[in-house]
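Record format v2
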Amino acid sequence: MSSEEVIRAAAARLAASGDSRPRAARDPVNLPMIRNWIEVIDPNGRDDRDTAPPAMIQVWTMPGLHGIRAGDDPLGQMSQLLDEAGYTSVVATNCDQAYHRYLRTGEQLSVRAGLLDVTGPKRTALGEGWFVTTRSTWFSDGEPVATMDFRILKFRPPQEIPTQEPPTHASPTSPMLPLVTPDTAFFWEGTAAGELRIQRCAKCGVLRHPPGPMCPACGEASDGGYAVAAGTGEVFSYVVHHHPPVPGKRLPMVVALVQLPEGVRILGEMPGVRPDQVRIGLPVRVTFTRAGDMSLPSWQPAEGALPDRVIDVTPTFVIASALATRDFQDVHHDRDRAVARGARDIFVNILTTTGLVQRYVSAWAPDAVIRAVSIRLGVPCHAGDTLTLSGQVAAADGDEQVVAVTGRCGLGDHVTGTVRIERSR
Amino acid sequence: MTPPGVGAAIVGIGATEFSKDSGRSELRLAAEAVRAALDDAALTPADVDGLVTFTMDSNAEIAVARELGVPGLSFFGQVGYGGGAACATVQHAAMAVATGAASTVVCYRALNERSGRRFGRVAAGATAMPTTSGVDNGWHYPMGIATPAATVAMVARRYMHCFGATSADFGRVTVADRRHAATNPHAWFYQRPVTLAEHQGSRWIAEPLRLLDCCQESDGAVAVVVTSLDRARDRPHLPAVISAAAQGAGPDQFTMTSYYRDELTGLPEMGLVGGQLWRRAGIGPADVRTAVLYDHFTPYVLIQLEELGFCGRGEARDFIAGGAIELGGRLPVNPHGGQLGEAYIHGMNGIAEAVRQVRGTSVNQVPGDGPVLVTAGTGVPTSGLILR
């Protein structure tokens, strides 16, 4: 049998064998762990002494620093098989959690896991690999309280450093950046500072975008003067780009040409916004999106938008959040090991990302009940980066709302997903 | 009466086959097309003293001259702005002939656009060029407007919003072009017409543009020979007299992204070209027998019809309804199948078709002897010709 056939046969066998035996959490749901978690994930957030943040569900049953996976854990068995076949590296790609109810301190949990699906081998940007999806169900005294579908990519790390792409070809991840000249520097300094600046002629006062070195209205040379835009506008026209791929962008994407009340137009992506949410005339507000070491203007619908949350991803944040989520994988705390595994630096773990997304929405809707968090991971968020969370109400039905959340870092989208919430009447 | 003109004519046309993989260098394609055009005009490389091409062409005039054994060049040049250069190469050649700078000038364009560098892909280096174009691209590429289709889609959406045009209105351009290509053995889409339903069923590229709103990608080359009217009379074919030639760049002009003008529903640079052409040729839109309109993306065919005065603003969708731009209609457009149907040779194959229409040798000949209009790339600084 070829190794592919061995993997497929094992996957079929594991999937057919059903869920693992219940594995008990080491500790009951407890306040010290909750407070450690909130302290790093959401330092300004409210801490409810009676219930645990729902996105902590996976934390309670993590195996710990010296933990050993149960012999019947399907992910452990599948991982071992893939390790032996040379697919030794791992990255989490998707996490869909649904919470039946909130947990109270003192509850003793157990978890059962089953293998849902194994697909591959697939060629990915990281290397050839297999996607492994498991479903975990948590129980409290026999009552199911939460489920999670978790997908990882087990991949074969490339043997050689990939050859440099010729500069005229689009690399799949590095975003394109504007050329900064003496005529345009004020604009990009503005976006970096969170300001949308419009060139203003010192002599005749005309506002102009895109800017240039000489006023076409009166001939005055630019003195670098500008007005700061209110940051609002209306969609004048827009494109939904489907094909071909654009570096650093997730498709399809909406790009809007926005008419500002100041009289100029400025182009920008509407990241995370669905095409059916956009129309000509839609009121929008500016946000700023990191791209490399620059900030690009982008647009969000003015209504139903959550305020951005900007997280300074220090090494301390990466390590403290990994430990607070009881994730002791070396890539989250040991830089040398992370680099040896092909990463630029230590990077944020998926339990933290899940937690950040949940708490971002909770902070905006403190009285809402979180029903589900569904995220897809994109580029890694390394120590030294900045993570900007933005959100938008994507759908509402009675008491229930779906909030679309995007988290962007220097390399592009780190996370996109949705949070389903229920507003109390 | 001598028709008004610039004192020059196109006396030879030549082309390679149009394919998806020529298997040859772009220089070889250029040399083959130029030689074919000279053969068509019963001229030799020794008669050539001028060469003009596109700034985007990868084959320098001297390289082409070397391959052909042209003894010397007294005039050579390149015209910028992508496909907007097409008709301008002929204008520049005609001006050289008219001023005596040269006597016989060949205009050429050769590209392996399908098997080599594909324009429809994102050129990530576009924002790194230390030029004004690089700076301009920086306002659009990083934000995600990074392909020609996307740049046009922005204008198309606004046009639809303002005038009520629909995707099906754009699709009628594709249907007409593909119908014409279906009877042109030189066309890539020979014997492959499409229906409006097929257009409507094709996938999104950059909404509101579908795959079938975007012209194909081609390998191939086209060349045309320009000389004075006096010399033209001795050539074997009926000369295609250049009644008028014009270039145009509009106010606040960008390359494909003139998004900062008051309105976003026109192509003022094409309006400038049209105004000059009608004035210089002493004719109006109603006199045109057939028009070869640049069709890299369908919406710009509608807007050209309006800019050139064939119909009023926002009326192109009514103008083209009912097959008006198909053979037998009130204004047959792109009888060779256009770039959507024949090949994407950056507009040069359209000039060759206009010459055939003047000669009366097109496979889809439009009856009559009236003037033929040709336009070049849209959304960019552009150009146009009237031949008769």
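Chain B has a mean pLDDT of 96.
The first strand of chain B starts at residue 8 and ends at 15.
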